[in-house]
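Supplementary Note 2. Why include the ligand at all?

Several targets in our set were suspected to adopt different conformations when bound, so apo predictions alone were not considered sufficient. For every target with a known small-molecule partner we therefore ran a joint prediction. The input for zinc ion is given below.
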Amino acid sequence: MSNTDQNNALGLFQTVHVPLGDRAYDVRIGEGLIDRAGAHIAPLLGKKKRVCVITENNVAKLHLDALRTGLAQAGIDMEALILPAGESTKCWAELTKSVEWLLEQKVERNDVVVAFGGGVIGDLAGFAASILRRGVRFVQIPTSLLAQVDSSVGGKTGINSPAGKNLIGAFHQPALVLADVSALGTLTTRDFLSGCGEVVKYGMLGDETFFEWLEQNGPLMAAGDVAARTYAVKRSVEMKAEIVVRDETEQGDRALLNLGHTFCHALEAATGYSNRLLHGEGVAIGCALAFELSARLGLCSQEAPSRVRAQIKAMGMKCDLKDIEGDLPDAEALVALMAQDKKVLDGQLRFILARSIGDSFVTSGVAQDMVLTLLREALEDRM
Ligand SMILES: NC(=O)c1ccc[n+]([C@@H]2O[C@H](COP(=O)([O-])OP(=O)(O)OC[C@H]3O[C@@H](n4cnc5c(N)ncnc54)[C@H](O)[C@@H]3O)[C@@H](O)[C@H]2O)c1
Ligand SMILES: O=C(O)C(=O)C[C@@H](O)[C@H](O)[C@H](O)COP(=O)(O)O
Ligand SMILES: [Zn+2]
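The joint prediction is reproduced in token form.
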């Protein structure tokens, strides 16, 4: 995995290479990458200097003109499909619309689709690209913090089902990721903090030093410091890339990236994939629950969940079930939703638990009673 600074016609950026053999690609991180998108994407194109971009209305309003100009500077034309923003767009209807639109645009096997937006667009457009003509290449241009640190890297693409989160999808690696940290400047505070949920997750699952860095630099990041944001994106991507390279299709270790997600996905399904709970918010709440469960099982110290919760709260993120507005189902119903989790093996739930901050592992040996009691207490705390 190389990690280099470059300064040429492509601008100044840092690279995390994801060495996956014939599916290897760069994640380029820096300012002004949208303005220079054409120069970065041009080497991927054949004779046809055109890309089809899938995006959504919030991002289109703020950044699509810049992308059009950035592509035009390298002589690349762009057609764009603008979908509604929000988690509910990760559904069959929008997938069908996207695939039919790509076919109308006569996208060929050798063309490149561009996913321009947050994790919703990355997951949806990546899945559309994976099934179009049995697979065309796609470039991720992630515009949210969450998408830059997590969803644009690693090739998990897909949509939600009423039965559960991300249950329909495919592994399809991008050909290139351009993470333009200047785009983060237009995020709402809520969306920025949602992305922080995944950032803190990396520290908790595998790097205590990064967790400590976040304890010290969280406020700087939130205040918009570009160097701090760039470092957080780069360190997160490095960690994700390392895990993905070890286990691309989640046969083992990759499940570590799911820390907090068994709880999170059940809560997202329970709140109807709505604005009541954003994915990164669910991840933060899920991580706090996973550490609490680990402590109750005697796997980690009692101090670890307190430190995790203190950091989540210090950054201003949602931390508890009581931070979710409106009704929630009871503990039994939440556990029933977990039964559709993709980590279920031989009918048994698997959880990511922790020995300490920065030392997590995957296990199937968690008694359901422990999970039910934990959830009952967390739900009672809402009363
Ligand atoms: N594939 C993976 O590995 C992976 C990893 C983590 C999360 N995910 C998925 O990602 C999704 C969440 O991603 P998300 O948090 O980016 O959600 P999102 O795509 O809905 O974006 C969050 C909000 O930010 C807005 N936005 C995006 N970029 C913006 C910008 N630059 N300026 C202003 N507003 C902007 C969007 O319009 C939206 O309202 C979930 O569906 C989750 O399951 C996937
Ligand atoms: O890339 C992964 O692997 C992850 O688990 C990253 C998660 O943050 C992400 O939310 C992912 O979409 C969850 O995957 P799923 O397979 O549990 O749906
Ligand atoms: Zn996630």
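The chain has two domains: 5-186, 189-380. Residues 56, 58-59, 62, 85-87, 90, 117-121, 123, 143-144, 146-147, 150-151, 154, 156, 166, 183, 186-187, 191, 194, 198, 278-280 surround nicotinamide-adenine-dinucleotide (ligand 1) (CB under 6 Å). Comparable summaries for the other entries are listed in the accompanying table.
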